[in-house]
Amino acid sequence: MHNNISIKIIFATLFTLLAAQSTLAQRPPAGFVPPALHPEGVTLGVEQIGANVYALQSSRPPADNAGFVVGDKGVLVIDAHIDANMANQIISAVRTITDKPILYLVNTNGHADHTFGNYAFPDETKIIAHKLTKKMMSPDMDQRKKGSLGMVRGDMSVFELTESRMPDIIFDDFMEVDLGGISVELYHFGAGNTFGDTVVYLPSVKTAWTGNLVLGEGSLPFLLIGDTGGYIQTINKFAATLEINTIIPGHGIPATASIFNRYVDYLRNLSATVAKAHNNNKTLDQTIADNPLEERFSVPDGLSGTDFYRGLHPFNIQKIFLEKKD
Ligand SMILES: [Zn+2]
User: Fold this and answer.
1) Residue 113 belongs to what domain range?
2) How far does the centroid of ligand 1 lie from the alpha carbon of residue 111, in Å?
3) Number of domains the chain is built from
4) Cα-to-centroid distance, 281 and ligand 1 (Å)
């Protein structure tokens, strides 16, 4: 009974979130599992990527990763995490490395799990986001909290103390942040998982933080806002613009540039498959049943959050199906 109620709450809140973001929204298909982002017990491990560049990796993927870069003048943090406790873990991790001020915080997208820690950062920290990310961060926190309950098993206590803190600086396609002796590049290659997806790139170590645009190794793209063609274009532009050694995803384990081909092949292939099913007058349920995830796109067994990653496949089929219907 209790489980049924919490599942209903999760789907109801997820539906609200999706409805707010897409006119094509409908209840997610069977098999879709919201990402388990409840912060309880999650710790962030500091991993040095190169000189002055650090990844913060979640002990329980797909709970969020983050990162920071230290320059002569101060520090830039990548993503604020889901609440003040997690944001304070990020700040403490920075303090194990340097006493310099945290001058900037970048929100790679506007979801709760990337921005609800904003308010825990000091006043001196300027928050940077893409203009469309700022737009998706409505100051109506009640609405944002309710819409985000699915990711924390319906547990409102996670968001109880969270206050709104909006970006101070917005950018369009590109912005360079000079930290003194090291520069951080911010790119918007187009819409992906959200309309304002931001890639944070460190040319010195050829490493990119990708938020939700590219999830971890072995993952599938999450077509949350639909627009399959747009997602493919965004990934292609990303791959063509930057030389990549390492991707630190917003969720999941680090990936290499080979994830670009995986995402593009998967999306192209699925788009063609769903178009064919649609032309043959198949229903959505039939299309999902007829098209299990192909072996070449399989999600590895040992991956933490496997149920979430695998459940993205029926979710993506539904999104593409509804696009074709339009
Ligand atoms: Zn996320």
Assistant:
1) 2-325
2) 6
3) 1
4) 35
